[in-house]
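Hi R.,

Here's the chain you asked about this morning:
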Amino acid sequence: MKQTFIAEQIFDGEQFHQQLPISVEDGQIVAFDSVKGAVESKLAGTLVPGFIDVQVNGGGGVLLNTDCSVAGIEAIGQAHAQFGTTGYLPTLITDDVNVMAQAADAVAAAVAKGSAGVLGVHFEGPHLSVPKKGVHPQSHIRRISDAELAIFSRDDLGTKVVTLAPENVSVEVIKALVEADVRVCLGHSNADYDTVVAAIEAGASGFTHLYNAMSPLNSRDPGMVGAAIESQDTWCGLIVDGHHVHPAAAKIAIAAKPRGKMMLVTDAMPPVGMPENATFELFGIEVVRQGDKLNAVTGELAGCVLDMIGAVNNTVSMLGLPFDEALRMAALYPAQFIGHQQRGQFSIGSQADMVLLNSQRQVEQTIIAGQVAFKS
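And here is the predicted structure, written out as tokens:
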């Protein structure tokens, strides 16, 4: 069905327009004009490119680690669609190799089915640093083996991201992963600066939740944080929830990195999209929600209840960035990181992934491939 959407205001990824028609056919943008025979929808609010989240552990009461199924993945996507996410990487945290294989099978099935928003998979671990493990279970942290390499090398998983600690994975293995079309992110690591630089030279292209669970920047020991901020060609995920990163630290990193290399992530857990008092278990440890914060009963931060529109609005209110740049950090820049050049912006031929925001910058509608995925 041909559709033409006419919102009061449209942000195309670069600039704002007033009353600009966007026509969609077969899930793609075909014209910035009204197309003959199209059903017109006039929308009150601002239409922006759909958000892309490359680190989504759970949502809607589901944790990928404990529900490695297409239905579980789709439930996570439906929860995040309420908050403007139109593309995401279901993220499996450190676990047994059999669970990794089950998650890979589920993601492959979701990709083959065309489950709304599923772009691939993010394996956050298990090849991490014990001193920087956070809530990742130490019992499953291990050296990389042929079994994990076989999973990471599959060609039916869509976009593949793997977070690893470079002090525990050789540059030769990093090169092999990159050759297998894996986007290697560095994180949960106590590596020194030189080890991080060597990993970047081997092809690592991203950093997982900058500042969190990584060796810090010091005057004579720049650590992973220093290498990440210095690097001009890598992307950094940033959790802007007011708990994981101090606003001043976030501002410093944004100022230092080239424009386009900082992207918003949620690191979201099952309570996203659930009632305020939702709790869950993570490897037998209870995780408690207190407002907009998640802590394991052992004290550690345990992911987030952050959503993407919340991250956008926090970037404006906490960091003082312009609204349009916050939107790019949620859509265009993560699309560029994962190599989806036709997402994160409105252009002829791009998938019609769109979010309608009201005057309070809250989500009224989420549209994935031209189909309404959420309506308030």
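One quick note: The chain has two domains: 3-48+347-375, 51-337.

Cheers,
M.
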